[in-house]
Design a protein that fits this description.
Blueprint: H1 2-9, E1 16-19, E2 22-26, H2 53-61, H3 65-79, H4 87-119, E3 122-127, E4 130-135, E5 144-148, E6 156-162, E7 168-173, H5 174-177, E8 179-186, E9 203-208, E10 219-223, E11 230-233, E12 238-239, E13 244-245, E14 250-257, H6 263-266, H7 278-311, H8 327-340, H9 348-366, E15 380-381, E16 395-398, E17 405-416, E18 419-424, E19 427-430, E20 436-437, H10 444-455, E21 460-461, E22 503-504, H11 507-510, E23 522-525, E24 551-554, E25 559-560, E26 581-585, E27 592-596, H12 621-626, H13 680-701, E28 703-704, H14 708-720, E29 722-728, E30 731-736, E31 753-763, E32 771-777, E33 783-789, H15 791-794, H16 803-818, E34 822-831, H17 833-848, H18 853-864, E35 869-880, H19 884-893, E36 897-901, H20 906-915, E37 924-928, H21 934-949, E38 956-960, H22 962-971, H23 973-980, E39 985-988, H24 993-1004, E40 1012-1016, H25 1022-1027, E41 1030-1034, H26 1041-1045, E42 1048-1050, H27 1055-1093, H28 1106-1116, H29 1118-1127, H30 1133-1138, H31 1154-1181, H32 1194-1216, H33 1222-1243, H34 1256-1261, H35 1264-1290, H36 1300-1314
Parallel strand pairs: 16-36, 16-40, 36-39, 37-38, 38-39, 40-41, 41-42
Antiparallel strand pairs: 1-2, 2-9, 3-4, 3-5, 5-14, 6-12, 6-14, 7-8, 7-13, 9-10, 10-11, 15-42, 17-18, 17-35, 18-19, 19-20, 21-28, 22-25, 23-24, 26-27, 29-30, 30-31, 31-32, 32-33, 33-34, 34-35
């Protein structure tokens, strides 16, 4: 029986099985497509479905006290003889529920559409050797997935084939770890070469179940026809979802993890409801009001019973009292009072808050200060429920790469053989003598140093710069598919990379989220058919078989050579150029850029050059002059506000004016002899022109690096004249370009010197080694090892003979670090043939081991990385985001503690933290590195706690790495949290995405109830963003997934200052006023009802007509508070930006604390007493107030009370408002007129429903005593409010409290704690 049930519920067609928590996946997947499960790769971020929306949304809404209360009251009013119409409770409830449900449903629909765009994106797979296109959601484990250049990986794949001749695949992982640099993956070693038709018979992949660790993968391939051979699989063989293929035309991989079990999705938390902390205070107030309501109802019930037993029997005109009293009568009496006073709970409060939040979010999206003009990107508000939370932030968690920095490196200085040099574009400046050196003047040490920089890296050159390369503007001869070589999994017989350098002109656009135009339908073509003349670029080289006939061809647009520096048109058009093309031959080969005639906007930036006769004509004028202002680390070059003063004077002359100079000589001269009197300004302009040409040429090389530091160093070498041209089958080519050579001329005319090195091995960089090395062989067959890495790891590897140079270089590195520059040490040594052969043997043994492979390899590396000769050190600047230092300093002044959570190493993150002002320069820095157990962690935390306590107010910064943080989170979480929050700044390094969210969750669990915010720009930040109270995304260069999952998103980090200090402050103040005012006006409204019961023998009669009960919160008092709740400004925007300390006035919801609430309650009680008893006295002593000389009826009494209440509560709001405008005053006037007009219309209709007010209000309007009484009552009510308001301004009382004693105690406690040792 059990087996039958298992067969019924077993998923049929899946070839994925689980044995001992390991997955077994058949390469090629299931053959039967019909039985194959669908939607295994579907991504879901929505909260509701069509079935669950209504019950789940109603459940969420009725968790609110007011909604649940009114639901109960509506049911009760339908079951008993209600004193008022049940519709007065039902209609507001339905309106509130409907509006809220529509808003939340619309937001979920937007998430659903976004998911569908991803799930429905086309993906190419291989089935039985043929190409097929399916939706991304239908990819299943085992499918062979084809990923082309500049396309995103749809699921986690094991790499099986690549067009790279060496079996490599280059990717960017910006959406995973935040790094936009190029990374290298490899096909599994010794993977056999099989045809596409036979790939599904290759074998079975056995791997561990998906985990959250992005940097580890354990698995193996069991080959079917390989006599039981097993190939190990590591992380370098796996393409993760979210990564993007770059610089590789096409790859094929086998899907292993799909859908919600990919590593990216496992690092992302599920979408959850985020509630504002202000709702906690609202619920507390509601509970107090509810308790007061129960107390009032109980009191009135017992007073009614007392009157029925002892008072009414004495009043003979009321008749005989009833003898029996049943439970039904008890429920009728008690619940009648409950229904009568249910308006004490402001149900319209929630719908008004929802409207205020939605309109406030529109204001943020319309804010021009949050608009990025360059990218046409406004601020985006995805969750309007958290607007006021922007003003309550205590701790900000920030990503580093792409958030605080641009991830763009600039080479600044270097230390060579104990001497310091400054980088000056195409020259070096000696720090001591200020002498300028070019490559012709370099000595041996300087040549070897820059030679090491141009060799010790893994950079790829995207451009084809071979001398004999054919210009791309000329058409290539057509090739038949049979002429294309079949690619291999290994180095031999691979498809040549030079034949696949063409790519679609719209390939970049295909990588965007809009995938509807990404891939066109495939068509089959036969070489002998109509399409037999197609070019090789039309054929996917991975899909070419031996005979070249059975080929799946993909329709592509017309293709051109594309350089990454094309200037994008504003309309982002992607039509292929037509007509004749202009080709300009660049240097170092035949790099040709083509553009249509008459269309200068489509030309590469590198070709937009025009000779100038004046320095003012050059775009580099400002840059050249800004260099004289010195190095300012807070900003990158060219960034806004990067320098203190503007380099260009306001009265600068016209650019076409010819300047004359008394000087007839110049340091540089490019003019003919007859122009020896040429002005110096023209010579300088020529120098600027040459710098631009060098920069443009290097830009066309399109260096693709795994590290931005490497790219900056290689580009610096190219600027100096040592140009790295790329590698051809591990042969590194470096061309020496003398400074007098014009980059616009062909190099064949002067026969430049070219050096070649054969790269034998690359010893990769790891977080443990903190260095990378390459082993090369020069032209004389000598083998060298070059090492580059952190100085703390390279210096111990140097020989004793370099001790003096180490001391000098270390001093220079300290100088570089004080400038906030990233430093690397460079060393090398000559290795003998015997040493090299021993290294090969040890490395082969390490690679063949399935256990401890990483440890054995590192031990092998360490044995050859020894006795090095130190060459020097480099200093590179990581360009910061615009105004990032000012933003961080302002936020810290606002009382916000900033934690930086990054995946970078400690040294890098520390340099950035010092540069951007995250860690104050004089702060004590405490490091917790490589902590292994709880005891070590507690020792560190105790020491840090003492540093903070005995630091006498000095700033203290904590720096902790991922391993230590893992120990802290699992074994000493509370101790770590309590100590870390005391630090001025915290820097957490080498964290996984899930660790980031765990840190945020830990701080949220504190008893201090910190309000947290997280900001990031990559998919690796999504879990952190979703975990925090407020998630903020930056729509940067690392994708839009963080922005889509965030609550708020904008283009630049510096916009965070305005978002928090201005919008956060405003929304907090506005919501506080809205909440307190709602309780106030309802207490005034129901306070009069309460007093009325004492004069009606507690008969549960209503003093108001049902019309007034229904429209009071809808029309009479809703518009002014809604308007001021979206426009209130206690301070100007400029003042809030200049004075960050004002942000502290609203943090911790100070204006929603009990003193403010009770103050409003006291005013409400006072106003209700004044209004009721003024009217009661008027009607008691002389109710002949009508012009017709008659006494006023009871209906006039209730109408007069309502009229006065509407006027007083609206004028009270006027007094409490700080920002007055004509439109605001108009809303107050229109609300009062709304009462007058609706009452006039209502009282001329003879309806005998609740009370008969027929013509009652018309009589009051015609009565002069009534107007005088209203004026007197309003003055009596509002004089105390006005007096207190003026006293606050006159005496400069910042915070009014009815509990000065408690406030004084709190101040003394804070003072004591601040001086506690």
């Amino acid at each position: 029986m059990v087996k039958c049930i298992e067969r019924i519920f077993r998923k049929r067609g899946s070839r994925v099985s689980t044995i001992n928590d390991w997955l077994q996946i058949q390469i090629g997947g299931s053959v039967d497509v019909k039985k194959k499960p669908k939607c295994q790769n579907r991504i879901k971020s929505t909260k509701y479905t069509l079935i669950t929306f209504l019950p789940q949304n109603l459940l969420e809404q009725f968790r609110r006290i007011a909604n649940f209360y009114f639901l109960v009251m509506t049911i009760i009013s339908l079951l008993i003889d209600s004193p008022v119409s049940p519709m007065t409770s039902l209609l507001p409830l339905v309106f509130v529920i409907a509006v809220t449900a529509a808003k939340q449903g619309y937001e979920d629909v937007l998430r659903y559409r976004t998911d569908n765009m991803v799930n429905a994106s086309p993906v190419t797979i291989i089935r039985e050797g043929k190409e097929a296109i399916i939706k991304s959601q239908n990819v299943a484990p085992g499918d062979l997935v084809v990923v082309e250049r500049d396309c995103d990986v749809p699921c986690d794949l094991v790499l099986l084939r690549s067009t790279d001749p060496h079996g490599k695949c280059f990717i960017t992982t910006a959406n995973l770890d935040g790094e936009s640099n190029l990374k290298t993956l490899m096909i599994p070693r010794d993977l056999p070469d099989v045809d596409l038709e036979e790939m599904h018979k290759l074998g079975v992949i056995e791997c561990e179940a998906a985990t959250t660790d992005l940097y580890s993968f354990n698995g193996k391939i069991e080959l079917k026809n390989g006599e039981g051979r097993v190939l190990p699989l590591t992380a370098e063989n796996v393409l993760l979802r979210g990564s993007r293929v770059k610089n590789t035309e096409c790859v094929i991989g086998c899907a292993v993890y799909t859908g919600m079990v990919t590593k990216l999705q496992l690092n992302s938390r599920l979408t959850r409801n985020k509630n504002s902390t202000s709702e906690t205070y609202i619920n507390r107030f509601l509970i107090v009001i509810l308790v007061a309501l129960i107390a009032i109802v109980t009191l009135l019930y017992f007073l009614k019973r007392y009157n029925e037993l002892f008072v009414i029997p004495k009043l003979n005109y009321l008749g005989d009292a009833t003898d029996s009293y049943s439970v039904k009568q008890f429920l009728q009496d008690y619940l009648s009072f409950l229904i009568l006073f249910n308006y004490l709970i402001p149900i319209s409060l929630y719908v008004t808050i929802e409207l205020q939040r939605v309109i406030g979010s529109l204001f943020m999206e319309w804010d021009l200060e949050l608009y990025e003009k360059e990218t046409d990107q406004p601020c985006v508000v995805n969750t309007s429920n958290l607007n006021e939370e922007l003003g309550q932030i205590n701790i900000l968690f920030s990503d580093k790469t792409g958030t605080l920095t641009k991830n763009e490196m600039n080479f600044q200085q270097c230390s060579i053989a104990g001497r310091k040099f400054l980088f000056k574009k195409s020259r070096l400046e000696d720090d001591e003598t200020s002498a300028l050196l070019d490559i012709n003047k370099f000595n041996a040490d300087q040549r070897v140093f820059f030679q090491a920089l141009s060799i010790c890296h893994t950079i790829q050159v995207a451009s084809d710069l071979s001398e004999g390369s054919e210009p791309s503007s000329t058409k290539k001869e057509p090739k038949s598919p049979g002429a294309v070589a079949k690619i291999r999994s290994g180095p031999s017989d691979m498809f040549p990379i030079s034949d696949i350098t063409e790519e679609s002109h719209n390939s970049s656009q295909q990588s965007e989220l809009n995938v509807s135009h990404a891939i066109e339908n495939s068509v089959s073509a036969h070489p002998n058919g109509s399409n037999s003349t197609s070019t090789a670029s039309d054929v996917n080289p991975l899909l070419v078989t031996d005979d070249g006939y059975s080929v799946e061809r993909r329709k592509r647009p017309v293709v051109i050579k594309r350089s990454p520096n094309f200037a994008r048109a504003a309309n982002r058009g992607h039509n292929a150029p037509t007509g004749d093309s202009q080709s300009i031959q660049n240097d170092l080969g035949s790099v040709v850029h083509s553009a249509p005639q008459g269309s200068s906007n489509n030309r590469p930036i590198s070709l937009q050059f025009q000779r100038s006769t004046s320095e003012k004509d050059l775009p580099q004028y400002a840059e050249a002059h800004s260099l004289s202002l010195g190095h300012r680390r807070a900003h990158s070059y060219g960034a806004p506000n990067a320098y203190l003063t503007s380099p260009i004077a306001a009265d600068a002359p016209a650019p076409n004016v010819m300047f004359r100079s008394p000087s007839t000589t110049s340091r540089e001269s490019y003019a003919a002899p007859m122009f020896t009197r040429q002005p110096t300004i023209l010579v300088r302009a020529e120098s600027q022109r040459r710098k631009k040409e060098i920069h443009d040429f290097i830009f066309t090389l399109d260096y693709q690096a795994s590290s931005p530091d490497e790219k900056a160093l290689v580009e610096a070498c190219a600027n100096l004249g040592m140009v790295y041209l790329g590698d051809d089958d591990e042969i590194l080519r470096i061309r020496i370009v003398p400074p007098h050579v014009d980059y616009k001329r062909s190099f064949t005319s002067f026969h430049p010197k070219e050096e070649t090195f054969q790269r034998l091995h690359v010893l990769e960089f790891t977080s443990d080694r903190k260095r990378m090395s390459v082993i090369v062989m020069d032209g004389e067959d000598r083998k060298w090892i070059y090492t580059k890495g952190a100085e703390s790891y390279v210096f111990p590897l140097c020989a004793n003979s370099s001790a003096a140079r180490i001391a000098q270089t270390d001093a220079h590195i300290s100088d570089f670090a004080r400038l906030g520059l990233r430093t690397l040490a460079i060393a090398r040594r000559l290795i003998t043939e015997k040493q090299y052969q021993d290294f090969l043997v040890e490395l082969s043994q390490a690679n063949s081991s399935l256990e401890n492979r990483k440890q054995l390899s590192e031990e092998c590396y360490a044995r050859i990385e020894c006795n090095l000769d130190l060459l020097g050190a480099t200093a590179v600047e990581d360009a910061l985001q615009d105004d990032v230092a000012d933003t961080l300093v302002s936020l810290q002044a606002a009382g916000i503690k900033i934690w930086v959570l990054t995946g970078d190493k400690v040294e890098t993150a520390l340099n950035i933290a010092l540069s951007c002002g995250h860690i104050p320069p004089d702060a004590k820095k405490y490091f917790i590195i490589d902590c292994k157990n709880r005891e070590e962690m507690l020792l560190h935390l105790n020491a840090l706690d003492r540093e903070v306590i005995f630091g006498m107010g000095q700033d203290c910064a904590l720096l902790i790495d991922g391993k230590s943080l893992s120990v802290a989170l699992t074994e000493a979480s509370s101790e770590f949290r309590d100590v870390a929050v005391k630090c001025t700044a915290v820097l957490c390094c080498r964290l996984s995405p899930l660790q980031k969210s765990e840190v945020v969750s830990l701080i949220k669990s504190s008893n201090e109830n910190y309000n947290t915010a997280s900001i990031g720009d990559g998919a690796n930040d999504v879990s952190m963003i979703q975990e925090a109270h407020v998630g903020i995304g930056i729509m940067g260069r690392e994708g839009r997934q963080a922005a889509r999952c965030a609550d708020f998103a904008f283009a630049k980090f510096c916009m965070l200052k305005r978002l928090l200090l201005v919008h956060g402050h405003y929304h907090s103040v506005r919501l506080s006023l809205l909440v307190l005012y709602f309780f106030y006006k309802n207490i005034v409204f129901m306070g009069i009802m309460f007093l009325f019961q004492f004069h009606t023998l507690f008969s549960s009669s209503s003093v108001y007509d049902s019309l007034f009960l229904t429209l009071y919160n809808v029309i009479y008092t809703s518009l002014p508070i809604l308007f001021i709740a979206i426009s209130e400004k206690p301070y100007t925007e400029d003042k809030l930006m200049r004075t960050p300390k004002l942000y502290k006035k609203n943090t911790d919801n100070k204006q929603l604390q009990w003193p403010y609430f009770l103050m409003w309650v006291l005013f409400a009680v006072y106003h209700s007493v004044i209004i009721f008893y003024f009217a009661f006295c008027l009607f008691s002593y002389n109710n002949v107030i009508l012009n017709i000389g008659q006494t006023a009826a009871f209906s006039c009494f209730g109408t007069l009370l309502m009229w006065t209440v509407v006027i007083v509560v609206n004028l009270k709001l006027w007094l409490e408002s700080m920002y007055l405008s004509y439109w605001y005053i108009f809303t107050i006037v229109i609300s009062i007129l709304g009462f007058i007009i609706t009452t006039i219309i209502y009282n001329v209709i003879n309806l005998d429903f609740d009370t008969d007010i027929y013509w009652a209000y018309n009589n009051l309007l015609a009565s002069l005593p009534t107007w005088l009484w209203i004026l007197l009552t309003c003055v009596a009510c509002l004089v105390p409010d006005y007096t207190i308001r003026m006293l606050q301004r006159a005496l400069n009382i910042k915070n009014f409290s009815i509990f000065p004693g408690n406030q004084r105690k709190l101040k003394m406690r804070e003072k004591f704690e601040s001086t506690y040792l």
